[in-house]
Amino acid sequence: MEALDIRYYFVKAHSVISQGLLGEIYAFRGEFFHSSYLSAEKPFSWRLDFEKSGGGALADLGVHMIDLVRFILGELESVSAKVKTIVKKRKSPDGNVVDVTVDDWALIFVKLESGAHGTIEASKTAVGKGGTRLEIYAQRGALLIDLDNPYDLKAFDVDSKTGLFR
Known about the structure:
The protein is α+β, with helices and mostly antiparallel strands. It is built from 3 helices and 10 strands, in the order αβααβββββββββ.
């Protein structure tokens, strides 16, 4: 059997939510985790310079999760955020030590127009928990989307029974 395009599963999740099959959405959690920037030995690059990149983990990774949340769950009504730079200085390719001017960890708190609340966390320093996931919790069940294994979209009903979308 030929594998379906990953977008099919996002459309399927959107369809399940928009048809109200899980009832009212009350919470969600999105995670986009990498560990590529935890080591202070990783050299400075344009991605770590705000003037060249426009932002750090939130702008580089988190924006993709924000787009996915908007597509599946709807528009954002309000947002607040916390950002942090874990590794504050790095060596440039020419050997000079320079300041990192972007975040490498971000957590945003979101309220959707639907009234659902959730978080989106993006990190370039998440050793041991790499990956991209979106968990959606609703009145009659939940959807769990793991982008590292997108062909295994899990849906749980109120009785905790699970099924796979194929």
